[in-house]
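3.2 Worked example (two chains)
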Amino acid sequence: MPDERIPGKLIGAIVAVGSLAFIGILTETVMTVLFPQLMREFNVDTATVQWITTIYLLVVAATMPLSSYLNRRFKHRTLFLAAVSLAVLGSLIMIVGHAFPVILIARVIQGMGSGVATPLMINIILEQSPKSKVGRLMGVGSLVITVAPAIGPTVGGAVSSILPWRAIFVIVIPVILLISLPVGLKCIEQHRPTEEARLNPLQFVSIVLALCGLVMFLNQAGVAVSAAVAGSSATVSAVFAVVSLIVGLGSLLFFGWSSKSSFSPLIRLGWLRDPMVLLHLVAYMLLPIVGIGFGYVITNVAQLSLGTSAFLAGALVLPGALIGAFFAPVGGMLYDRFGPVRPILVAFFAAICGPILLLVFSMRLTSVMLAGFYFIFGLGYSLGFSNIMTNALRNIAPQFMPDGNAVFNTCLQFGGAAGTALFSTILSVAQAGAGEEGGATFRHATAVGGSWTFATMIVIVSVAICCLIAAFRIGAKRK
């Protein structure tokens, strides 16, 4: 049917905004393979250097709750130009910054840009796609979310092996200005009228405090445990962790209460009363803990346990990333054809085999095993992940889709930040008291930490699968 064709300008808009979001997520995961190098350059430990990644994901997660308000208040093109400006500014600071706090400031700016770009891409797809093509276009959008984190370590390892690591950001700026910007200006269209939406600053502050508090709890709890294992004082970190948890949960509860009673909430949350949608959301938050955390775990286990170079460590995730690039749209096509149940569940039953095999062979892993078992996970993850959000948003009223998009993307980024903090903590605990980096004891301790992370991954994916099964049972009863 003619009305079911995908407009050329829609494809261009997805390419423009998607490439911008792709670059943002790519530069986030590029840094994970550089952690050992950055630890030496800035003289920081593992728990500190991971804030380069965690603070970026945290800022993205804090920006995304604004996406519903921004989508209603401003035109798509205005938001796109803001995202371009933030991405370029952040990259420039990364190039010239030579102190660790300056690098963190640059990551904050880049995180704001990505926090605007990613939900903008999803909103454009949901608003402008033909109904019979939503699944496959959401699959294309999923390339940004799933593939960029996976190939980031490969790109980082390749570039850093021949150039200074800052060259990555020198390369990024022309791509944004010469490809994303002109294509976006030409193709991005406005199909929905803007509204006189109002920003509730108290609710925004509360959700930011909630996200910061919860991630700080994970980080400081890890620091406290690592210190206790190493025989150092853990009192300050433990107190900080408890306070952060109280602030985070308290702010989250306040946000929910104020949103329910507010005339113009930052995010409308009434659609979360549907248990089927809520279960989809829980799974969508849990799975990125593993999906995004995998890049950190594999590259660090490869370098610190197997003794590989940064280039080889990054290359280990490339096969899984490439298969993800191909199969994310395929997963969307399967959703369009067969519905949600089989494409999603089969995909994640396949994905969980990856961490299971990694756990079984954790103490005698080789580089080939790391790459192969991650390939299995990447295949299943890319086939099923975007379909979770697609199916959930299809079950809420169209006027609430921007709110659903904001919540799902916020949970995605929070899951990624939590995963990096969680897995870096597990490795730090295992490495505590194991001597200097490069020694046999340290390498064995890292391998033990790897086995702990793989076991944790299995538990997380299993819980997500159970949530999805429960959601599909509720849907089946309704039919």
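3.2.1 Second chain
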Amino acid sequence: MPRRRIRVTDVPLRAAFAALRTELGVPSDFPPEALSEAERPPRPGAHADATDVPLFTIDPPASTDLDQAMHLARRGTGYRLRYAIADVAAFVDPGSALDAETHRRVLTLYFPDTRVPLHPPLLSEGAASLLPDQVRPAALWTIDLDAEGRTTAADVRRALVRSRARLDYEGVQRAVDSGTAEEPLRLLGEVGALRERLEVERGGISLRVPEQEVVERNGTYELTYRAGVPADGWNAQISLLTGMAAAELMLAYGTGVLRTLPAAPDGAVGRLRRTAQALHIDWPHHVSYAALIRSLDPGTPSHAAFLQECTTLLRGAGYTVFRDGVLPDITTHAAVAAPYAHCTAPLRRLADRYASEICLAAAVGQPVPEWVGAALDALPGRMSEGGRRAGTVERACVDLVEAALLKDRVGEVFDGWVVDVDEHRPTVGTVQLETPAVIGRVEGAELELGERLRVRLTEADLVAPKIRFAPV
């Protein structure tokens, strides 16, 4: 999870992001051979006809790379979820030029002004995307839930599907709030709320990290945060539910790839307590970390800053491969508080294609395809490398945006709080400004974690890019 997501509407910043992509060696055009292969129709397969299921997608309004489509219905006193995942393996031949290029890219990279896709747009935004009124191959999950939202059965099979509608979060929220939503959307709210309660029960945590937006008005930059609506969380719970079902299926099968995260060390949570104090967030000792997170409002600047810092507890996440019935030492994801697998975003994340194939094999009791087994052992390292690249991109973009925001304010004094101190150099740390919502490096005097501090902006360089503060 990135420290923060950013959107940008400023032309000079767009030029800077283009230069950054060149500097970081981010892939641009796809090789001609890969593009040619992307034009091929999907391979014929044993896809059942499920085009009668009235699926719908929920994504940001501008999204066209649609990995998932869903439908919910009542089933007795419980519910039935049908969840379609784009069948990317139907389009990418193992060992092909396109396959090699996806292994080089690993992840779709998100810049504030554009994205660098894992697959050619012809596939990711066209032939493989679950666009409305188009028949598409998919891995179709059927997950039955009881009246409390607990999974009672889960299965996945290849199927041809057809989405009926492309929805966005705000539109879904308006329909539910106004009482005009059709039953599948109303049930999304019901099931989402039930799954959120179960998340609380098992000790899981969903960080509602707000989206940061930078705009130019009258020659100056402004920074704001956009917090998600409840429908964002409901949709995320459906994805989590499917990832948990996939993990359980692979664990029972004895071969798979999990997304794992060890429990955070006590020192990390203690450090967050001091950060909360620095941002004037009340965290009584009897309140758990998970309970505090759920009480925060991402629309409040100090809460938004704290949620950004909480993502540091996710830095130990990785991919864990197991096979032949030998289970790994760690099978759970600490933030999910259950076994979990990435399987719902194969258009944007390489590992998901492999997880889907393992689940499809497990569901019918067949061996995994040879090409899947051959790639498994190298997959965690490849995903880790791709994650580091994505992290570098995200950090560089944040630095650029903040430098642009402050480039004309060098020498000004700001109020803030020390939210981090270098353990080995107490004169170096991180300051969270009260306004604007900027986090930057501060150095020059001994710092105390949590102290309120007045700092002077000493540098805001768009070329480097970087910002620096010094205590007043």
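3.3 Remarks
The longest strand covers residues 151-167.
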